[in-house]
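Customer escalation, tier 2.

The customer says the design service returned an amino acid string that "doesn't look like it belongs to this structure." They asked us to rerun it and document both sides in this ticket. The original structure tokens are below, unchanged.
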């Protein structure tokens, strides 16, 4: 009798749990998997490498993102290059670091180009490593001075950040600085306008293996190789041994798929006016 009562209570509890999950999570399919396509993009951004223009517009409509002006909404942000050629570009954020030279060694071994978006405070901290990037002939872009959220700052503070960033970069190279990448990929009218003021092209990305949190080199490499498309701009980060270990796999895997790895300037030559 006790066994039967326990069984009945178990069944009742199970039924209640199922009913509750159906009511509380209506986005679940019949097999228990989230219907991702019905969720606001920001809520499932981990499944995407970047937000396309349609997703940005949807977020604005849902008041997830602040209202953006027509100039920003209509802009062709450089998330990727032309799709007519089987070419990609590799970029690194957040450097330099003590072992920046390890990245350079791999790139030189495979004779491929790359772009480094450097942070001003990191340049001040590791000037020799920053100079090695410049002396090796790799393109250098601005990635802010202190990697703060620029969209939360006043215009004067953002301008000051750009000034300090450019000053730091110019201390280690005489080459023209053409590219800017906002911290966290976040931007608004003011950020874009100030970047233009300094003749900087804002460059984002379209392939992001999230190597800043993923520690398995094989997972990082497979993500990049599988998701690369014509004109892809690949986002990687400095300061991570797992990324260094993944880099040879990434290069070889992209080559096996027939991609040519070119500099950012070459990839975007048709996009920049």
């Amino acid at each position: 009798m006790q066994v039967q009562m326990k069984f009945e209570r178990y069944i009742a509890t199970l039924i209640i749990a199922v009913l509750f999950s159906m009511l509380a999570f209506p986005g679940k399919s019949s097999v228990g998997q989230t219907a991702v396509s019905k969720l606001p993009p920001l809520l499932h951004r981990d499944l995407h490498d970047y937000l396309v223009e349609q997703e940005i517009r949807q977020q604005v409509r849902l008041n997830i993102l602040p209202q953006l002006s027509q100039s920003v909404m209509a802009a062709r942000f450089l998330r990727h290059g032309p799709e007519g050629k089987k070419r990609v570009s590799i970029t690194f954020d957040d450097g330099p670091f003590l072992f920046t030279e390890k990245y350079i060694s791999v790139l030189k071994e495979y004779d491929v180009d790359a772009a480094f978006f450097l942070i001003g405070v990191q340049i001040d901290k590791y000037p020799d490593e920053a100079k090695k990037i410049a002396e090796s002939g790799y393109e250098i872009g601005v990635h802010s001075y202190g990697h703060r959220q620029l969209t939360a700052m006043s215009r004067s503070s953002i301008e000051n950040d750009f000034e300090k960033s450019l000053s730091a970069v110019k201390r280690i190279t005489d080459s023209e600085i053409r590219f800017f990448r906002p911290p966290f990929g976040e931007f608004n009218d003011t950020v874009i306008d100030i970047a233009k003021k300094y003749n900087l092209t804002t460059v984002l990305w379209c392939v992001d293996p999230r190597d800043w949190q993923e520690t398995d080199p094989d997972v990082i490499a497979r993500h990049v190789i599988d998701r690369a498309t014509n004109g892809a701009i690949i986002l990687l980060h400095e300061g991570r041994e797992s990324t260094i270990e993944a880099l040879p796999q990434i290069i070889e895997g992209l080559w096996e798929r027939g991609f040519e790895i070119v500099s950012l300037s070459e990839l975007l030559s048709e996009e920049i006016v």
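Tier 2 assessment: The sequence is consistent with the input. Confidence is low (pLDDT under 50) at residues 1-8, 10-48, 71-76. The first strand starts at residue 87 and ends at 95. Sent an explanation to the customer and offered a walkthrough call.
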